[in-house]
Write a structure and sequence with these properties.
The protein is of the alpha+beta class and about 160 residues long. The chain is built from 8 helices and 4 strands, in the order ααβββααβαααα. The protein binds zinc ion. InterPro entries: IrrE_HExxH, Rad_response_metalloprotease.
Length: about 160
């Protein structure tokens, strides 16, 4: 099982370059990411126990979702593995709203870390102080949805 602080160090290392590469983070944590075709559109992702892998889990993501959405899903599943691997059991599936069988507070925690992974505050502030201030521009720079970026910046929608 992953050590929390070591895992967060890996995340930080990958946040030096924007946009953050979610699959690279997963791979460095010993987790493989698979894009799955022909999933129902209301299925976003899945994380499943894999005792053979170094990270202990595999991540699956809906191939038909747009890239920004896949990136958020992957970050969300990575967050599940980092924060509460013991709650995953043999596996969990996240629906379109990134809800699984886990509690709302656990899902909210995973969403928070996913946002932290994709939109590190330090880098955001750097871009903003360099004059990149529109939600659309920042969303493009960080390769996230405008909705995710607006939430991150606390912009009313
Ligand atoms: Zn989830």
């Amino acid at each position: 099982m992953l050590n929390l602080n070591a895992a967060l160090d890996v995340v930080r290392e990958h946040q030096r370059k924007i946009p953050v590469k979610t699959v690279d983070i997963a791979n460095e944590l010993g987790i493989k990411v698979y894009k799955v075709p022909n999933w129902p559109s209301d299925l976003s992702g899945m994380v499943r126990k894999n005792p053979e892998s170094r990270g202990g889990f595999d991540i699956f993501v809906n191939q038909d979702h747009p890239e920004v959405r896949r990136r958020f899903t992957i970050a969300h599943e990575i967050a599940h593995v980092i924060l509460h691997p013991h709650l995953i059991g043999d596996g969990i599936t996240d629906d379109a709203l990134l809800r699984s069988g886990l509690s709302n507070s656990v899902e909210a925690q995973a969403n928070r870390l996913a946002a932290d992974i994709l939109m590190p505050r330090e880098k955001l502030n750097e871009f903003i102080s360099n004059g990149v201030t529109s939600v659309a521009q920042l969303a493009k720079t960080f390769n996230v949805s405008e909705q995710s970026m607006a939430i991150r910046l606390g912009v009313p929608q």
